[in-house]
Specification:
alpha/beta, 2 domains, globular
C-alpha cells in the first residue's frame, strides 16, 4: 500500500431506516478465519484489508464472474462497516432479511475435497453406487469447519437456493441432499448420526423453533464474539423479534434479555 493512499471508508448509512448496502445480489456464506494473514483489495479506488479465506474466495470468484455465474455479491466483511458499532448492530439485526432476499447463496468451502471432486453431474451419477469411499468423503464434508460457525446455520436455512463452491466446482443443495439420502438412511443404523449432523439440520430447516430450542440445538456452534451465539439465531427463531442487537452488551445483561421473552415462562429455582 502506498503511504499517501487513504484506506477505504464506508459512507454512513441512514440508521433510521431498514437500509443495507446492496444492489441485486448474491450472498456469500463463509468462515472468516484467523486475522493473522490479510491481503489488500481495492474498494471504490481505496485499499481495504481482507482475511485469507475471503481473499481466496475473491480470486476464485473472479473466474466465475467471467463465466457469469454471479455478478453482484453481498459480503458481510465488505458491506458492513465492522468498525462502526451502531451500524453493526443495525445491520446484524437485518441479516435474516439479507440472506432470505438474496437471489441465492454461495457457500465457500475453500479446498473441501468432497465438493472439489463432485460437481452436479458427477455427484448425481456417483451416488448411485454406495461405497466406503463416498461415505468417507461425505463425513469429511460434514467435518468441514464451515459447519461449526454459528452464523452458517441462519445463512443456510434462509437461503432460497444455495450452491457449495470449492475450487472451480459447484454443487447445489438439492443435488447434495439427493445423493446423501442414499447413505443417511443406512448410516443411522451403522454409525453415529452426529457425524452427519449438517444433513439432519438442513432437512429440519423448515421447522419452527423457539429461541431457547435453537440455543440448545446449536449450542456447540463456534463464534469469535460470544454474543453471536444468540444473534445468529434471531431470524430462525419464531419468538426472537423482541431482542435488539447490541454488541456492547454484557453476558449478564444479554442473558436477562433472553429470559424476558414474553412467550416463555421461566422458573429460576435453587435447591
Amino acid at each position: 500500500m502506498e503511504e499517501h493512499e487513504e484506506p477505504f471508508r464506508h459512507t454512513p448509512l441512514d440508521l433510521s431506516t431498514n437500509s443495507i448496502r446492496l444492489i441485486e445480489y448474491v450472498c456469500l456464506s463463509y468462515v472468516w478465519g484467523p486475522d493473522d494473514e490479510t491481503h489488500t483489495i481495492t474498494i471504490n479506488g481505496q485499499p481495504f484489508q481482507v482475511r485469507r479465506n475471503l481473499w481466496d474466495f475473491l480470486k476464485t470468484a473472479s473466474t466465475h464472474v467471467r463465466r457469469r455465474d454471479f455478478n453482484a455479491l453481498w459480503i458481510d466483511a465488505l458491506c458492513i462497516d465492522q468498525s462502526n458499532l451502531l451500524e453493526r448492530n443495525h445491520q446484524v439485526k437485518q441479516m435474516g432479511s439479507i440472506y432470505r432476499n438474496a437471489h441465492h447463496v454461495i457457500a465457500w468451502l475453500d479446498d473441501d475435497a468432497f465438493v472439489a471432486r463432485h460437481n452436479q453431474e458427477a455427484w448425481i451419477t456417483h451416488h448411485q453406487k454406495s461405497d466406503d469411499h463416498n461415505l468417507g468423503e461425505l463425513r469429511m464434508f460434514c467435518d468441514n469447519e464451515y459447519w461449526q460457525r454459528a452464523w452458517i446455520t441462519q445463512e443456510v436455512f434462509l437461503a432460497r437456493e444455495i450452491f457449495f463452491l470449492a475450487g472451480m466446482n459447484v454443487l447445489d443443495l438439492k443435488s447434495l441432499l439427493g445423493g446423501a439420502k442414499v447413505y443417511i438412511s443406512g448410516l443411522t443404523r451403522r454409525t453415529g448420526y452426529q457425524h452427519f449432523q449438517p444433513f439432519y439440520d438442513i432437512q429440519e430447516r423448515s421447522g419452527t423453533f423457539s429461541l431457547l430450542e435453537n440455543l440448545w440445538r446449536f449450542r456447540q456452534k463456534e463464534c469469535s464474539d460470544w454474543r453471536d451465539a444468540v444473534y445468529s439465531l434471531l431470524s430462525i427463531s419464531e419468538d426472537a423479534a423482541y431482542l435488539d442487537v447490541k454488541y456492547d452488551i454484557s453476558r449478564v445483561a444479554l442473558a436477562l434479555e433472553v429470559m424476558q421473552n414474553p412467550q416463555e415462562d421461566f422458573c429460576l429455582c435453587h435447591a
